[in-house]
Amino acid sequence: MQALSPATSTNLEFLLARRRRVNRVAPSQMIIRSAYRYDSANAASSANGSRADWQASCAILASKVVSQQDTEKTGEITAVNGHRTLDLVPIDNLPKPLTISDLAPAPMHGSTLRVAYQGVPGAYSEAAAGKAYPECEAIPCDQFEVAFQAVELWIADRAVLPVENSLGGSIHRNYDLLLRHRLHIVGEVQLPVHHCLLALPGARKEYLTRVISHPQALAQCEHTLTKLGLNVAREAVDDTAGAAEFVANNKLLDTGAIASARAAELYGLNILADGIQDDSSNVTRFVLLAREPIIPRTDRPFKTSIVFAHDKGTSVLFKVLSAFAFRNISLTKIESRPHRNRPIRLVNDENVGTAKHFEYLFYVDFEASMAESRAQNALAEVQEFTSFLRVLGSYPMDMTPWSPSRED
Ligand SMILES: O=C(O)C(=O)C[C@]1(C(=O)O)C=C[C@@H](O)C=C1
Fold this sequence. Notes:
phenylalanine biosynthesis; D-Maltodextrin-Binding Protein, domain 2; Arogenate dehydratase; disordered N terminus; EC 4.2.1.91; five-stranded mixed sheet; 13 helices; chloroplast; ACT-like_dom_sf
């Protein structure tokens, strides 16, 4: 994993130290457990409001989360990413997904921006990469973890990662990965997701015995599938386009795939039903990740994403949220995830004893730029209540007006 540079190592500690002076908060009140020492040389350059200053404010305050090699494996349908040639359409020239074993450091490449995404061509994540960076080269990866590593190892410049869907809710796994890795959120993309039921030419809806897709896509189409009379087995695979590819490669006449119209085209499948998401305004939000943070601005709407933990019970959450409320900063998302390193504690009211107490990390998105003093003040306050705080990124909001037109 890429080490933090000295510039980033001064981190939010410096920025908040400045705010602390302004706010006259005693140093003892700051509960910072920084893995990195305050560095006066860097601080001096940061004081000029430079890029280093911002990088400093984005870096990690204190991480108790150890990077773990994810051992979860795809399971049964590994052939999804096999890319064998299909008789119906030549798909030889599609890029092959990266696997863990492909991840060796690569030489610097040319000027085309490379964007890593999880899935195979035709996946919605590929479309999200194209929406964010229209001229980019989209690099398919077989796992989310690989997409992160592709950026960390300079194989790709950005990774695009789905984090929430208007019907299915949060994609929890990606929240965990955001914390485990050291990449910065530099943008977001909201993508209308228009699902189709795909099958081999000649296959009929009545004869399908199972429908396969990404679990989120299955969840987003649950009611419509039932309405279509498809009370058949539903099986989860790694990504929607991979499901289409699997059906095509294995010539499965009894299996339908939920995926995009583009996936139908790429893998030579027919569209048996179009627009099968349970709500026509189905939207997935993706975040764009990079090795370096961007410099936050105030000339357009920005969002900031943070993650924090505390060890003082639930009243802390109220205090943290009020730090934003008092400054009229709107929260757009709050998500909690178990604190894996400290999953459970046994305490009573005096913090000793028997009651079960689960520990959580909280992810919060709020509508303000880290260039705004109200956001900096809010975070300075949040830091006083929390034992761990990290700014995941401050980035322009996707302000594209929603339209029900298909984007896939
Ligand atoms: O499988 C894909 O096509 C993806 O890009 C993944 C994903 C997801 O993880 O939510 C993205 C958008 C849709 O909501 C369904 C699936």
